[in-house]
Amino acid sequence: xxxxxxxxxxxxxxxxxxxxxxxxxxxxxxxxxxxxxxxxxxxxxxxxxxxxxxxxxxxx
Length: 60
What we know:
The chain has a single domain, classed as N-terminal domain of TfIIb. Strand 3 and strand 4 (about 40-45) form a beta hairpin. About 0% of the residues lie in helices and about 45% in strands. By secondary structure, the chain is mainly β. Strands 2-1-6 form a 3-stranded antiparallel beta sheet, with no helix packed on it. Strands 3-4-5 form a 3-stranded antiparallel beta sheet, with no helix packed on it.
């Protein structure tokens, strides 16, 4: 039995300040900071997180 294909809930996002790329969960419940410069990369909204950077790709 095959599982239904769902859209990935993870995205590779580039930090707008330093250019570091991180994989983020789209429904983050807490603010996500860049591991290099500490800038906020995602803010929780109660649903999909508000991303503060450029989406580079999708993680399967």
